[in-house]
Structures are given as C-alpha cells and as structure tokens.
Write a structure and sequence with these properties.
The protein is mainly alpha-helical. It has ten helices and no strands.
Length: 247
C-alpha cells in the first residue's frame, strides 16, 4: 500500500513538472471575445498569435519543435506589429497604453526566444503565461458584453494560479481562489440559458479544488496543484464548447 501511494504521488509530481502551461493563450476564448469574422484582420491576427503562443508552450518538452514554433510566432508578431502598432483598430485608438502594451508583448517574445536558445525552460513557462495575459490586454478597449469580460477575468485567475504555483506564493493562490469562485458564480448567472450545462464540469472542478485546498491546510501541495490543473483543463474545455455553441 505504501509503494502504491508513493507511486501515485510520484506520478502526480511528474504531471506537474512536465505539464505545458494549459492556460497559455486559450484560442477558443480569444475567438469568443473577438469573433471569427474572416474579414476582420485584427481579430484573425490575434487568434493566430494566441494559437502560436500556445504551440510554443505545448512544444517545450521537444526543444527542436519549440524552436520551430517560436520562429513562426516571431514571424507572426512582426506582421502584427507592422500592421497594428501605429494603427490600432478604431476601438483601440483611444487606448492611451496601446504602445506600451505592444512593447511589452515584444519584450516577452524576445525573452522567451532568448530563454529557449539558452535552454532555460523553467523561465519560459511563466513568461508564456505573462505573454498570454498581455495579448489579452490588447482587447481592454474592445466593446464586449459583461459575460465576455467575466470570462477574461476567469482566464486571468488561471494565469495567476500558475504564477503563484511557480513562485510558491500561497497567499496569492488563496486570494485568487476566492476571486475565482466569485467570478465564476457571476458568470453562471449571466451565461445564456442553453449554455449553463457547459459550465457544470468547471463548477465541479472549482468545488473540488476549494475542498482540497482546505483539506491540505491551505498549502500548495502536489494534490492541490493537481486539482488546479484539472480545473484549468476544464476551463479550456468549457471555452471550447462555448465557442462551438456560439456558431
């Protein structure tokens, strides 16, 4: 029994150690926020950036593939920067921080590329999460519904969870968990009636994460981190299903 328990804990630790940053740019969420109009060049480029950022994160265990995906991300970023850094969409022209946001994204892409070349994968995970958050920040001024804004806040919570996990910041994790519970409850109240069922799996996972966190004495144990990853995966699945349901 003791050997079985040791194997189970070792298996969980391996999952946590090698798991790609799932929250890295949820392409389905980007599509839900921006729409999928093939004639909207900005939206299409944002979706492409999100997809390629995620591809870099997923390829981290395979250095050659990660380098190849990084090269494609940099190419797409140059195209985006040339087209939108000085001429944002109409709704973005009033965003006084637009130029700062563009520079911040460029800085993080450069940092990730540099860390990849140096083999510093331990830094890349957190930088990809930060890059994902900054790509979403470009949408701050975009007209959107309350439901869309709450969805973005939920996404940010998962980014913060990952940051807290990587820095072993229990206080940040705890505060963020409380905010996630509140925002998710708000989302369930405003989501379309025919989509409520799509939220149930994440509702269960957030409940399980909250219970496990209490059981483990509000500590970032392997079990708690495993439950967090399950909730993050469930969020990704929910946005995928919401995207399908919106078509």
């Amino acid at each position: 029994m003791q050997n079985v328990r040791f194997f189970s804990m070792a298996f969980l630790f391996a999952i946590l150690l090698f798991a790609a940053p799932i929250s890295a740019c949820d392409v389905n969420l980007v599509s839900l926020i921006t729409g999928e109009n093939p004639n909207d060049a900005f939206s299409q480029m944002i979706i492409k950036l999100a997809s390629e950022t995620r591809s870099v994160g997923q390829a981290l265990p395979t250095p050659d593939l990660a380098a190849q995906n990084m090269k494609q991300l940099m190419k797409t970023w140059v195209e985006f920067d040339n087209r939108f850094s000085q001429t944002p969409p109409e709704w973005g022209k009033g965003d006084t921080d637009w130029s700062k946001k563009i520079k911040s994204i460029a800085d993080f892409i450069g940092r990730i590329e540099s860390d990849l070349r140096a083999g510093k994968n331990e830094n890349i995970h957190s930088d990809i999460l930060s890059l994902s958050e900054r790509i979403f920040k470009l949408l701050d001024a975009m007209p959107m519904s309350e439901q869309q804004r709450v969805l973005i806040r939920i996404f940010y919570h998962f980014v913060k969870f990952s940051e807290a996990r990587e820095t072993s910041d229990g206080s940040k994790f705890s505060e963020n968990l409380k905010e996630l519970v509140t925002d998710f409850s708000s989302f369930q109240k405003i989501v379309a009636t025919d989509s409520v069922s799509l939220t149930k799996d994440l509702e269960f996972e957030i409940s399980q994460l909250t219970q496990m966190y209490k059981m483990e004495g509000a500590s970032l144990t392997v079990k708690v981190q495993s439950r967090y990853l399950a909730a993050e995966t469930s969020f990704k699945k929910m946005t995928e299903n919401l995207r399908k349901n919106s078509k």
